[in-house]
Structures are given as structure tokens and as C-alpha cells.
Design brief:
By secondary structure, this protein is of the alpha+beta class. It contains seven helices and 34 strands. Among the domains are: about 1-70; about 395-565, no CATH class. The longest helix is centred in the first third of the chain and has 56 residues, at about 15-70. The protein is globular and about 85 Å long.
Length: about 575
Amino acid sequence: MTENKDLEGEIHPLKNDEAAVQETNEVSDRRVESKIRKFTKFGQLSRWRTAAFFLVLFLCLVVVFAFSFVLPCPVRPESQRAWNRTFDDAVSYPFLTLWDANGDEVTDVIFAFKYFNDSNINGSCVVEGLSSPCAHVAALSGTNGSLLWQRALAENVQHVQCGIENLKGTKSSGCLVIGSPHPLTAISSSGETLWTFNTTFADDLSVIGPALILPDLNADDVADFLIFFTPINPVRSVNKLILQLVSGKNGDPIGQEVYYNITESLVPSSPLIHITNAGAYYILFIEGTAQGAALNDIYIQATGTPPAAAKPDAGFLKSDPEWERKTDSLSRKIELHSSSSAKYLQKVPVPGTSAGNLLISTSDSVELLDGQSLQTYWHHNISQIHGAPLFGYFNKDDVYDFLIEDFIEKNRKKVTIVDGKNGKILWEEDLIFRKNCPNPSSINTVSQSTFLFWGELPTLANSSAPEDLRHYLYMVHPSHPNIVLELKNSTENVLAYTTTLFEQSRHACNVVLTGQPIGSKPGPLTISKQKLKDAISLSTVRHLNREHEDFSDDEIKDHFYRMRYSS
């Protein structure tokens, strides 16, 4: 048998290998079939995934097209280039407040006035249970001048400040009305009263507004306020300056009032919040001299509690060591400037610093101080200051320059623009000064500013007629410093004026309030808006020095018309 097997192996030498190969091939075939089945399943799964992807994509496109073409988009009102609104039988307070009251991204106009025949209107004195005439605060739409809301108040209104976020914790912005007999009233964006600050100690006091907006002092997640009072009829030669912290959530006093003795009459210039480079908060005000007090000290005197115990994490309730060394140990006040005739105190922002600079205007000079060290950078001598200096950019150096109006004679004023770096004169012009002349305004172009001011250029025809009540509005830009554009001339009584952007980066407009002031006989009261480009198109070119102008009047007006404005 063995031999037969060997013989069979010799006759068929490959038989055993074939069997092995056959077995191997069978195994391989089974593996291939398995792989084919796996690939087939994977391919089917891949096709399902592809189909699902395209189905989702199709559904997304359907939704996009539905919202784009089927569902209507909200229509945004088109801003009119010009509008005006008139209130008959009224007198007005001399200010305008600009704020987007209805959230349509267009600036609205808020103002205060008194109606003498308002018994048939919504929000009237009668409806509010007040005797007529009473004060009204109204908001006009920046798009077309329509009345958004109107509210009668008991206050004799001194100031309205708007755009204050999170009043009463409402997560929306509102306004504060400063006046008397209620010193502070918070109203919503729709004109509804949120709260009123009521206290008996303020009955015989007048308010110095606006209110200062502070960080949250009482841990209720709502910003708080500081308001200044002075007695209406002081009985002694030594007057009192009274400070009161107020809750922004409900209008309640935070602690008691804080008293400072003052020997000089208090200038009704707006107090300031000043933050030093160390992060300490100081309250600055003018009382003969420009002075300041630490918010830390005011808080302690009002509440009787050290900030570290009441609010250990409140960095704004700390003191600055550099300023502490300059603070009087008895009065706890710091003297910012030695002049006893300070009139205006303004903060000048400087990029990269908290303290910035301070601009102090006295009766005969304007001086720029370092906001941390209080060292003087420069001072500019004048004859008699008229109104707070106006900020803007005349140079291309990203440093604020200042327009100053200076009385030089009984019916003359000098309009001067000084360099913010060194106080040197960049531009100046003499004008005839009219009674109740409105304050100047400015608006930024791409790299500089346009300055607008009121007066009258002296000519042979009108230099001897100061009694003329015609008001002229002029515009100057550093690109053509030897000409001014005369944008408006009118005999109407201008109570308030400003230039602003009604929409972001476009739609620069002039807003003018004309009519009779409080205390006068009532008459028509008009608020008008005009697009600045339209005013330029209708303007008259006035040459200050023709020798330096190589352009025609039409070319100059076209240059100003094509300017772009920024916030």
C-alpha cells in the first residue's frame, strides 16, 4: 500500500499542491464574496447618506426662498430729507435732546415745552390731573417728524437726558427729566413714568443737571445716579452744595444727603465723572474754582459704610494715591485749578488712558490739563468766554481741537479754533454777535470735522446796525479755511440748534428749534430738520480771503456736498 501511494505520488506529483491551492482559492473566494457583500452594503449606505444630504439641502433652500420671496420683509420707513412740525400757543425750554426713542435706528428729537391750550390732546395737563399750562416732554420721529409720544409733567423742566440703559431694570433705555418740584423723573422709551424721586429735603432746592450716571452702588444690577442741589434762597453768606445718591431701579435715595460748604456762587456748569488712571472715580464740579471729590468719600458720608465692607469688589469705590496727596484733609476736596473764575469744565478723551485731559475755561482763558497729574499743557488767553468750547478735528492728527467763542466788544465776538496739542490759533474770524445767539455745533467728516456757528460777517451795510435780529448760520471746514458757507439766515428766534447724524455714517442733518422761550407770550413753536447736503446746495459762498482761493463757488459747494460724515 505504501508503494502504491508512493507510485501514485510519482505519477501525479502536483496533486497535493493543487489540493492546497484549491483549498486556498476556496477560502479566498469566500473572503472576496464577503468583501463584495460588505462593499455592496457600504455603497447602499453611502447612497442613502447622499440622498439624505440632498434632501436636507433641498429643504433648507425651500425655507430660504420662502423667507426671501414668499414672506414679506418689514418695511423700514424712509427718512425724509426735511420736515418741520409746529405747535401753536406754546413756549419752549431752550434745549434739544437726540435719541433713538422707537428703536428704528434713526435718531429722534426730544424737547420740552409748555402748552397754553392742550385740553383736547392725549397726555394733556387735564388728563394727568395737572393745572394748565404745564410742562410737556415730547418725542418726534427722526424719519418724518411725526409725534411718537407726548407726556405732561408737573416739573418745571431744566434738562432731559435720554438713552440711559436699564432704567428700573427694564433692560431697555429711557430718559431722566430734571426739574422741580420733582427733581428727578424716569420715563420709558414710550413716555411712561417708571419712577419719581420724592424727598422733602429738596423742596427749597434747585437742581444742577444733568444727573451723573454711576456704576451700581447698591448691588441691584441697575446703574445709580448722583444729583447736585443748591438752595434757592440761601439765608447766609456761606452757601451749601448738596449731593444725593439715587437708586436707578426705583428712585429711592441711597443713604442721606451729603453737604459741602461753598463760599463762592456755584456755576451751573454740568458736573463730571472723572476716572483716573488708577481706576478711581472722582466727581468734578465748579465752585468758584474747579474742584473734585472722591466717589469713595461721598459714598461713605452718604451711607456711613466703608466701601470695602459694603462692596468689597467695587473697584470704582477706591481712591487714587496721587489724587489723595492733593486732597484737603478737612474738606475732602481737591482743587483742580487755582483760578477763582472758572466757568466750564470738560473732559477730553485721550486714547489709551482713563484720565484723558481736562479743559477748564475761566472768564479770560482756556487751559488744557493732564487728567492724571493736573499739570498744564497750554493756555489760551481770551477777552470773555461765551459758552463752553466745542470739540472737533481741524488738524489731521487725531487730537481734539477746540472752537472758542470770545466776546471782544458789546456786539462783536471772535470765533477761534485752537490746536489741541499746543493751544495755537488755527483759524479765527470776527463776527457781529446777536442776542440769544445759539451755540455752535460740529460733525465729523472722514478725517476732520465741519464746524458750524452763528453770527453775522461784518460788512459796510450792516456793521452799524447791531439791532438787526437776523441770524446767520455758517459752516467752515479745514479743506477750505478761507471761505465759509452761509447755510441759513432768518429773523426767527432760534432757541436751540444742533447738527447730528440721524443714521449711522450718513444722513447728517441740521435741527433747529424756533419760537418763544419760557416766560414769554406764547406763539408758534417749530422744530425743523434739514439734510445738511440740501442746506449746502442752497447755501451762499462767503469768501474771507479771495487771494488764496482758486476754485469757483460752484466747485466749492460741490466739494462740500460730496463730503461723507461719520459718527
